[in-house]
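Students often ask why we bother encoding 3D structure as a string. The short answer is that it lets us treat folding as translation between two languages. Here is a chain of 181 residues written in the first language.
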Amino acid sequence: MTIMEGWEKEGRLAALEANVRYLLDIEEIRNIRRLYHTYVNERTPERIADLFTNDGEWDFGPVSRGSNVREYFTNLKDRSQFFQQFPHHHVVEVTGDLATGFCYQEAKAVINGIAYTVLGRYDDVYHRTPAGWRFRKMCFDPRVFAPSSDQSWADPAKRRVDPYANFMERDADGNLIIPKS
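And here it is in the second language, the structure alphabet:
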């Protein structure tokens, strides 16, 4: 459905309501995707299962697949010491109470002390439930899963750096001193 489809035949108000509903559905689905990555990045994976339908499934290709979403994601912290995902280009198509979507991802991970770069694509099926939109199926196609050429950030002490250190100074209290030009 396009935003202007049916504008003349259904009547202006009905078409407007349908188009607003369509756009709100897309934003709610994008929010589910955003929350998923937030929970992974903030290391609160036990909250991820609430984003899935009761019969929800995941398929991460050669990594894992299954339907016990709560168990899998709750144990996620035990499998990685660090994980930051950077999704982008989330495309959603809604048809009634079902929707599909995809997005690309770049991620940085530390697993068993080794830093990895991960690139891939998520393909999802969503279902509208009484509680709102939820993942029915989440598939990740890892296109690159390789040790990073820079292993320095595998050490937790080296992940926190001062981004201003190379071009600004700090006073005795740690406040940034803005250089005069």
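Translate back mentally: Strands lie at 52-59, 65-66, 82-95, 98-111, 114-129, 132-147, 169-170, 176-177. Keep this in mind for the problem set.
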